Structure formats: C-alpha cells, structure tokens
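seq as requested:
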Amino acid sequence: MSEPLTPPTDDELEVSVVLPCLNEEVTLAASIRAAREALEGAGIRGEVVVADNGSRDRSPQIAVEEGARLVRVAARGYGNALFHGMSAARGRYLVFLDADLSYEFAHIPRFVAELRRGADLVMGSRFKGTIDPQAMPWLHRRLGTPVLTRIANVFYGCRISDIMCGMRGLTKEAFARLGLRAGGMEFASEIPIKAALLNMKIAEIPTDLHPDGRDRPPHLRSFRDGWRHLRFMLLFCPTWLFFIPGLALATGGIALIVAILLGISPYMGLITCLIGMATTVAGVQTMLLGIATRGFEQLRRLRVRDTALDRFMEKLTLEKGILAGSLVAAGGALILAIAVVQTISFMSDPGYNLGLLDLTSTKLALFGTTLLVVGTEIVFASFFLGLFNIEPLSDQEPAPAATSLRLNVRGVPDPTGDVEGR
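struct tokens:
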C-alpha cells in the first residue's frame, strides 16, 4: 500500500477527483493511486473522493487505506453515487471517472486546464481520442452512443461528439447550478443537457478508452440503460415527443376532413373522413399530453430554461382553456345540428329509400363530431392543467407533502452521505 497523502485544508483544494464505486476492489487501489499521481505530477492540490454505492467487497476499506475520502451513499444508482460524491467534494473543480481503469487518469490535468480557462463543463470524447480494441462493444460504438449523441445535439444543442463518455470535469459552481435530479444512469445525459439549456460554456477534449480491469461483467446493461437515456431525453423535451407529432397529426387530420368536405378528390369518402377524424383527435390529445408533461416537469423542477412555448403556456389559464374548448365544442355541436337537420330533410323526401345516406350531411356530421370531441377534451384538460397553477402558501414552512414529493422525485434522502477517511 502506498503512503497516503496528507489531506490539504479546504482553502488549498483545487480539484476533487470523484470515483463512483460498487464492488471495485480489483481496480480501486490502482485507480486511487493513478488519480493521485496525476494530481501530483501536475502540481495540483487536490483530493480523491470514493463514492461507495453499497459495495459488498473490500472497496470501502481499500478507499480508506489508500488515503481517499470515502463517501457512503445508501441510495443505489450511478447518479446517486456521483451526486453525493460531488456534493461532499471540497475542490473548486470536480473531475469524475470510473474506478475500473478504463479511462486515462493521466488526462486529468487536461480537464483541469480547460476548467481553469473558464469552461463550466468539460466533456471527454472517446471518439476524438483512442479506443483500444475490445474497449467498447460494437453496438455502443456504432449505434447506441452516436444515436443518443445526435438526439442530444438536435434536441438541446449540446454540440458534443460523445454524450456517454464517463470522464468529465465541471466547476463546483456549475454543479450547484445544474440542480441534478436523475439517480440512475440518466445522470450522464442530464449533465450536458442541462448545461446546454443553461447556456454554460461546454468544452470537449479527446480522451482514451481502455478495456476495463474488472474481473466481473460491467454494471452497464446495453439495452436497459440505453433505453433509460433515450427515455430521459424524450421526456425532457416534450416539444419533440408530443407537440411536433401532435401538431402534425391534428393539422393533417383537419386538412384531410376539409379536403373531403370541399370535394377536392373523388376518391375520398367516408372511410377517409373517419381517418381524418381519428387523426385529428389523436393529435389534439397528444398535444394536450405535451402540455401536461411540461406542467409536470415544472412541478418536478426538471426544466431549467424558459422557451417561447413555456412563456406562451404561462399565459394560458383555466378560464381561457375552458372558453376555447367551449367555443370549439359549440361550433361542432352547431355543425352537427345542421347535419341532423339536413339528414331529416333528406329522409323526408318522398323518393327516400331506407338505408340511403346523404354523403354531404354525413361528412358534416363527422366534422361536427370531431370538433365536439376536441372541444370537450380541451375543456376537461384545462381543468386538469389548472392543478399546476394553484399558488402555494408563501409565508409558511413547506408542508410534509412537498418534502415527500422531492424525495420521490430524487428517490434519495436530501442530506449527503456520511463521509469517512482522512
């Protein structure tokens, strides 16, 4: 065992290297030493923090023996481990990477250099560095990581090449501003996404990836964790998940119905009209779900930046929604009434035969029914969405329910874990 460093005082610490740990006894000691050598070699005053996530092997003992600070994190999950580890860190700059020797510890000073230059977040990029053979599965390298990175860049403007890289650096101030919430693997996506939304300065530098030194399978599960990242990105951006598809469906459905009513094409009949009706209703419902999702995100304090759509939604009130929905429903009821009158007139004709349909009145009836259903949806959705606009008490302590909500959202206790070590 190497001789542990004398812990520097708080005001001397510049960098905290945070290592999430779950049963890493095979590689943990070497990781701590490598981190310490990187700091010493660059003349950086820092510390090594091991955020232990409930290891059942000797990892906690090894961390203390090697002179690292041990932070015990009871709540399981990659995000929980890193969140509490960084919360307990004393350094002005935070650099975190896995404790399995897969990343290059000698590159730590490169991350620190970018942070010193003013970057809020420094992302490592394995694709700009060197990926050793067998270090990354083909599926991750060619499909999973590039697709998720592309989605993050398109949806959020992250402008990075490797959103899944596990070696990163950020300032302690940026960590506090991010208000991170995800307790699982989504934590890796949440950091650059929120940093982009907050217009933080993001830098990206090459880093290398080696085969890990574990004697067991990795904690990462390709399809499960890949889906969790994708799910987070979609739910975090309801504009792409709900509004754009919903608007396309509703606009297309209404256009189809109008085209049928105007007789633009002789090939469009009742079946096409029914398709337009269903598409319109589905589109409106999807957009209403998007509005509800945004309200729920605000309740969970996941959103970190107001968009034009958010500002527009702030002007929507329960009363405005009820009025708009009522007008749409009333218009639909009026059209439906006209269709009924025309149908009765058609059936009253002496030459009427039972079973014949007046196509014009039937199409009007379908259009009126569509508006009636959509208007009714808007009215009741407005009542539901009004729940998000109830103003809380201002001059009193938060109610127990509010604390319970926060715990349910994070899934972890509020205080950071116990800190051990020297």
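Residues 13 and 46 are 5 Å apart (CA to CA).
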